[in-house]
Amino acid sequence: MGNFLYFIVVGLVAGFLAGYVMKGKGFGLVVNLIVGIIGSILGGWLFGLFGLSAAGGLIGPIIVAFIGAIVILWIISMVKK
Q: pLDDT tens digit string along 2-35?
């Protein structure tokens, strides 16, 4: 249960940061937080494709989830056009 909570917190932080960085491409706080949670899954998958892994601690997983959230927000903005 603790790992799941950790996963959610990392995704929430990543979604918030991604929404802040992608100004004008964010979709509001709640959607950006959900995108962060989904982005953590996508980021982990993308990093796995390239044989990379997040460093231990909290910063590494946040960076991976942040990159995944940025990719998702970018894809959504392309589809939305």
A: 677 887 888 888 888 888 887 765 577 788 778 8
Nearest to 8 by CA among 53, 60, 55, 62: 62
Rg (CA), the chain: 12
Token code pair at residue 34? 């959900």
* The pTM of the whole model exceeds 0.70: yes
Q: Would you give the DSSP letter of residue 28?
A: -
Is 48 exposed, middle or buried (CB count within 10 Å of its CB: 0-12, 13-18, 19+)? Answer: exposed
Q: Enter the tokens of residue 20.
A: 């802040």
- Quick: pLDDT tens for 44-79: 888 889 888 777 777 888 888 889 988 888 888 788
Bin 51: left if φ > 0, else alpha if -120 < ψ < 50, else beta.
left
